[in-house]
Automatic annotation (TrEMBL):
The gene is metE. Residues 436-758 form the Cobalamin-independent methionine synthase MetE C-terminal/archaeal domain. It is an enzyme of class 2 (transferase). Signal peptide: none annotated. This is 5-methyltetrahydropteroyltriglutamate--homocysteine methyltransferase.
Length: 762
């Protein structure tokens, strides 16, 4: 290396927590069930952290993070770090049990509210902060994990949620007039100063403060608070150097504020729309006094990076910063662990993909491209180009018949034949439902027996006939259970489904499934997002057999259950070679065919779930109108072809709905069910203020908490709902599907739900 060759480091912001075989999930759930003690759980966590540390070091990562591990959620970890613990959770038997009580609740103490982490499918626990909140620093976790790595000879860069983002994500459960959590900034900044001091004294050279909230539109007073906060932190006499990290989008107006701040480093996203950060850096004259960590490898999607294009971006950035390091665009917790575990994938297609381990290789290769002669990575660049060309030329990527059908869609295909008022009368004549009709969202508990049956079918130990009968037996039991409890609109329980997106992905062309592509959604809930690799079509019906069988067992109406096009995209790894709206229309047409077949089979109620509509909303306001146009159009394309007397439902959960209320109206579903129990039914008032004209089912039971809501609790929720929204257009249902719950609590909770509804009707 010559003296003129730039120095560069390879780094990441975080790594998958679960282990290659979801060891963390299994250990945490075993602890919850009393099968292992706290010491065993802590030991498993340490083993996983040390394994990740060794893997990152052996891959050639120069600067390794710490404190990115979490038992449940990193925002919850920050609440514990700052002592922001609700009074109702302080009586737990141990610190670990208190932590899990905040996440999951107890019989006597509801959990913290849960919602989506920006526009991802990861969920965080919302901090509860009020004007009387007092903070107390508990630095034990970041200090212990830093020391743990130091014992292995690795000086890590501790990762923390920054103070601005933490407060902007928080809520005041009391809704105190004139108060906002950001008003508490002066109380927590001294704790961050103290934490930085302790980390420096422990040996930390750099600390990473994550401020992803700054890629959203922020008013001038928030930007002023950013400037003041980081001036204060940088003025601390004893501290590590500060790397302020942003991701998921461009910084916009926050970039000049950060460029002029006294922090030593900035980490920026340069993928997708965030590539505009490059122009932003140029417009402020660069950050020649700072370290730049350049996120040029997409940390949220699974496609192999275009190494030549990324290297070009890095070369341009060399002239805009004091030093340029190479990283993924965000933490790698959003992608699966290792593509080499996917032995069932076509090797050619596997070559198009890059999971967390492969992204480490891309990052290290790009760092070599900056610090060594380009010839040192020429073989990597050649192989990468060949794989990109293979993907572009593959016949599964572009299917003419699919594209022709999308091109033929007209505006008439996006509208129901009649307005809601006329449809409602037709549906009342067909369904004969009582006031405040009761239903569930769709799934019933996924028992161990069901999972074993699916595994036995895959392994060839169970033939299709025996498997079908096992599933039918479960459907019979679920229908009988609902009739016994007294629900009004029934579901078949979805025993045959592994996941609400994966199940459909496995039956649609252009979409592939993985065997080990697990990604954390929340806590111990992991999903395997399908891979949308090409044009999408439906070869044959996917759900009709099960719905029709369930309807044959009862005189009550049964709902057909589908996952909507926006959610199919959001909870899959979506192709990046065409606009997402084009892909959504392909999925919508496939679902339109399924809806038509369900209707023809006599299914009177069809639910097309869109829980991801809000989470996929662009972080920047400027991009939202275009997104909502195609998102709403794709839902309507899926559902608008039915008769007036077929009732269309949709469902959304665990998101802030205020920004999409008009889109919810525009979707024109006959009934929408929404998560609302954790937020004390706040969405009902939002719907009323928005003039929502159709029917709504605000969730009255938080199914993500392992507790049975009392009749009185549900009745209270119903009183709140009826006070804000017309009772004749209200439904009663849980927050979400019941697949993660056990049958004893489901029976008890639904029994209480029906009894509370009976009292409300009276």
């Amino acid at each position: 290396m010559t003296s003129s060759t730039p120095t560069s480091r390879a780094t990441v912001y975080g790594y998958p927590r679960q282990g290659p075989d979801r060891e963390l999930k299994k250990a945490v759930e075993a602890y919850w069930k009393g099968r292992i003690d706290a010491g065993t759980l802590l030991g498993t966590a340490r083993e996983l952290r040390l394994r990740n540390l060794a893997e990152l070091r052996d891959a050639g990562v120069d600067e390794i993070p710490s404190n990115h591990f979490s038992f449940y959620d990193h925002v919850l970890d920050t609440s514990v770090l700052l002592g922001a613990i609700p009074e109702r959770h302080r009586g737990a038997a141990s610190e670990l049990d208190r932590y899990f009580a905040m996440a999951r609740g107890t019989a006597d103490a509801p959990p913290l509210e849960m919602t989506k982490w920006f526009d991802t499918n990861y969920h965080y626990l919302v901090p509860e902060l009020g004007p009387d909140t007092r903070f107390t620093l508990d630095a034990s976790k970041p200090l212990a994990e830093f020391a743990e790595a130091l014992e292995q000879g690795v000086t890590t860069r501790p990762v923390l949620v920054g103070p601005i983002t933490y407060l902007l994500l928080a809520k005041d459960p009391a809704g105190t007039a004139g108060f906002r959590p950001l008003d508490l900034l002066d109380r927590i900044v001294p704790l961050y100063v103290d934490l930085l001091r302790q980390l420096r004294e422990a040996g930390a050279e750099w600390v990473q403060l994550d401020e992803p909230a700054l890629v959203t539109d922020q008013p001038a007073d928030v930007l002023a608070a950013v400037a003041d906060t980081y001036a204060t932190l940088a003025a601390a006499t004893t501290r590590p150097k500060i790397l302020l990290a942003s991701y998921f989008d461009r910084l916009g107006d926050a970039l000049p504020v950060l460029a002029s701040s006294p922090v030593e480093g900035l980490a920026l996203d340069f993928t997708n729309d965030a590539a505009a950060n490059l122009d932003g850096l140029a417009s402020v004259g660069g950050i020649l006094d700072k370290r730049l960590v350049a996120g040029v490898v997409n940390g949220r999607n699974i496609w192999a990076a275009d190494l030549t294009a990324a290297l070009s971006t890095l070369g341009t950035l060399l002239g805009l910063a004091g030093s340029v390091d190479v990283a993924a665009s965000c933490s790698l917790l959003h992608v699966p662990y290792d593509v080499t575990l996917e032995t069932g994938l076509d090797p050619e297609i596997a070559g198009w993909l890059s999971f967390a381990r492969q992204k480490l290789g891309e990052i290290v290769t790009l760092r070599r491209g900056l610090t060594e002669d380009r010839s040192a990575i020429e073989d990597f660049l050649r192989t990468n180009a060949e794989r990109l060309a293979s993907r572009a030329a593959s016949p599964i990527v572009r299917v003419p018949a699919v594209r022709e059908r999308v091109a033929a869609v007209t505006d008439a295909d996006l509208h129901r034949a009649s307005p809601y008022g006329k449809r409602r009368l037709a549906q009342q004549d067909r369904l004969h439902l009582p006031e405040l009709p009761t239903t569930t969202i769709g799934s019933f508990p996924q028992t161990g027996e069901l999972r074993k049956a699916r595994a036995a079918l895959r392994a060839g130990r169970l033939d299709q006939t025996a498997y079908t009968e096992a599933m039918r037996a479960e459907v019979r039991a679920v229908i009988a259970e609902q009739e016994r409890i007294g629900l009004d609109v029934l579901v078949h329980g979805e025993p045959e489904r592994n996941d609400m997106v994966q199940y459909f992905g496995e039956q649609l062309t252009g979409i592939l499934a993985t065997q080990h592509g697990w990604v954390q959604s929340y806590g111990t809930r992991y999903v395997r997002p399908p891979l949308i690799v090409g044009d999408v079509a439906r070869p044959e019906p996917m759900t009709v057999e099960w719905a029709a069988y369930a309807q044959s067992l009862t005189e009550k109406p049964v709902k057909g259950m589908l996952t909507g096009p926006v959610t199919m995209l959001a909870w899959s790894f979506v192709r990046d070679d065409q606009p997402e709206g084009d892909t959504a229309r392909q999925v919508a047409l496939a679902l339109r065919d399924e809806v038509a077949d369900l209707e023809a089979a006599g299914i009177p109620v069809i639910q097309v779930d869109e829980p991801a509509l809000r989470e996929t909303l662009p972080l920047r306001t400027a991009g939202r109108a275009a997104y909502l146009d195609w998102a709403v159009a794709s839902f309507r394309l899926s559902t608008a072809g039915v008769r007036d007397d077929t009732q269309i439902h949709t469902h959304m959960c665990y998101a802030e709905f205020g920004d999409v209320l008009q889109a919810i109206v525009d979707m024109d579903a006959d009934v929408i069910s929404l998560e609302s129990a954790r937020s004390n039914m706040a969405v009902v008032a939002d719907l009323a203020r928005a003039g929502y004209p159709n029917e709504a089912g605000p969730g009255v039971w938080d199914i993500h908490s392992p507790r049975v809501p009392s009749i009185e609790e549900i009745t209270g929720h119903l009183r709140t709902a009826v006070a804000a929204f017309p009772a004749e257009r209200l439904w009663v249902n849980p927050d979400c599907g019941l697949k993660t719950r056990g049958y004893p609590e489901v029976r008890a909770s639904l029994t209480n739900l029906v009894e509370a509804t009976r009292r409300a009707r009276a």
